[in-house]
Amino acid sequence: MGMVICNVIDNEPIKRLVYECMSICNHSIVECSTEDLATSSPRDTFSAILAPSRIVDQSALLRRLSSHAPVIIVDERPTVRKAVDAIRNGAHDYIPVGTQQELSDAILHSINEFQIEGGRFTLEQEILGDCDEIRELRNLIRKVAPTDGPVLVQGATGTGKSLVAHSIHAMSNRADRPFVKLDCDRLPPDRAMRELFGNGHGEVQSGRVAASDGGTLFLNEIGNLPSEAQAALLHLLDHGEIQQFEEAQPTTVDTRLIVGSVFSLDALSELGKVGSSLCIRLSQFRLTLPSLMDRGSDVLLLAEDKLEKHSSGLGRSELGFEDSTVTRMMSYDWPGNVRELDQAVERAVLVSESDRILPADLGIDSIPPPQRENEQFSGEFTSLEDYFIEFVRSNEERFTETELAEKLGISRKSLWERRNKLGIPRQRAKVKRLHS
After folding, report:
1. Measured between alpha carbons, how far is 424 from 401 in angstroms, rounded to an integer?
2. Could you give the angle at which helices 100-117 and 161-170 cross, rounded to 10 degrees?
3. SS3 for 147?
4. d(Cα 146, Cα 141) in Å, to the nearest integer?
5. Does residue 257 sit in helix, strand or coil?
6. How far apart are the C-alpha atoms of 420 and 135, rounded to whole Å?
7. Closest CA to 118 of 59, 51, 47
């Protein structure tokens, strides 16, 4: 059975979009006015309350609504300032409208986050897996969560860096304070300082750092931040304050910093993407996430979990995997990791015409993608693949394959797989050891 979502939004196009994206997931929508909700609706009936952006500055109203369920502000014209005001005044989350899929994902993610923060959280249920690497990861999370030091979460795209950051926050003494995330790889460099630290001129509170005061700030793909923003982060780590250029006095901020990266700090430092001083400060505690192809039978465990999630949401709980589908999933290399597996199972649930999911329903290809012929590095890092290509080409005559993998923070098997995928096979004839 799906969740019950209370909708307070009165904008017709947004109401229609909310109804469409929630009904697809088999969730019910109850329309309420703010007055009706405050006076007659029973507490704890709803999984979430969707509210319009016009109430972001009405703290009394927001707190009254949040006594019933987590309040999620939905805004078709989002700004950082309104987001900060919404969270400060009592909303659980603030999300842009986006597409139907984006809105659905954001709402469900916010509800899940609320459940984690509300104490309905166990690490074994949140981070699934029985392989040695995942068991050790959970053990390390339990150790690092109670501390306040910075944490680096390193892993390939789709391995769950954001999930691990959420888990650290949920198990810390900051769990009842904000968890603020910023995807640095989607941020234009000229907006980085404004997004993180506000606009200055008394508007420092509009930045993500200030919004995370007392809580946790997660910066995904730290290597994409410009040097100016990195220097300001280093100052924050060293002094616990935001030193705005225009401000007469610095602003004290108590935030726990977690950063994510596809590549190791050593690789980012050698590539000049993260300054050496910041690397040293971020090296206090490192968590490395394994690729899905290195997790053995965890593939099937995760696939069953995703199947239960997506099939129950669509009222298709009778679905199961054919043996041939299990074989296909176990032999596939999952370059997109857990994220790709989740999307493949969701697709299979939608397209399957019987109660047994067939290999073709997954929409994956067991044949490796074509290699890139004669790909040249342009001198500009336009993607994380460029990092990998340039680092390998610049260092393969200096290091062995094992050393290269260690520098990149991946297994030697993953290095071999990525070489094949990106069309940069080992040039063995040219390799010379430069040290004994």
Report:
1. 13
2. 30
3. coil
4. 9
5. strand
6. 30
7. 47
What residues contact residue 289 under an 8 Å CB cut-off, 6+ apart? Answer: 137, 153, 154, 155, 156, 159, 160, 161, 164
Count of residues making up the chain:
436
**In this structure, are strands 179-183 and 216-220 parallel, antiparallel, or unpaired?**
parallel
Q: Which residues, other chains included, contact 11 with Cβ-Cβ below 8 Å and sequence gap of 6+? A: 52, 76
Measured CA to CA, the distance from residue 163 to residue 260 in angstroms comes to 11
Q: Which two tokens stand for residue 311?
A: 């099939």
Do 198 and 81 form a contact (C-beta atoms < 8 A)? Answer: no
**Residue appearing with tokens 């703010």:** 34
Tell me if the pTM is above 0.70: no
Other Cβ atoms within 10 Å of 275 Cβ, number: 16
Chain-centroid distance, C-alpha 144 = 19
Report residue 251 as tokens: 């602003």
Structure tokens at 201: 């001129």
What string of pLDDT tens digits covers the 436 residues of the chain? 457 888 888 888 888 888 877 766 667 788 887 777 655 544 456 778 888 888 888 877 777 777 667 888 988 888 888 888 888 778 888 888 877 777 777 787 777 667 655 545 577 778 889 899 999 999 999 999 989 999 999 998 889 999 999 999 988 888 878 888 888 888 888 888 888 887 765 554 568 888 888 889 999 999 889 999 999 999 999 998 887 655 557 888 999 999 999 888 888 888 788 888 999 999 889 999 999 988 999 999 999 989 988 887 677 778 899 999 999 999 898 988 999 999 999 999 999 988 999 999 999 874 444 333 333 333 344 455 666 777 787 777 777 877 777 777 677 777 777 777 676 766 643 443 334 3
For the CA atoms of the chain, what is the radius of gyration?
A: 23
Are the C-beta atoms of 270 and 137 separated by less than 8 Å?
A: no
- Residue 181 β-bridge partners: 218
Q: How far is the C-alpha of 67 from the C-alpha of 155, rounded, in Å?
A: 38
Q: What is the DSSP letter of 92?
A: S
| Residue 110 to residue 118: CA distance in whole angstroms | 12
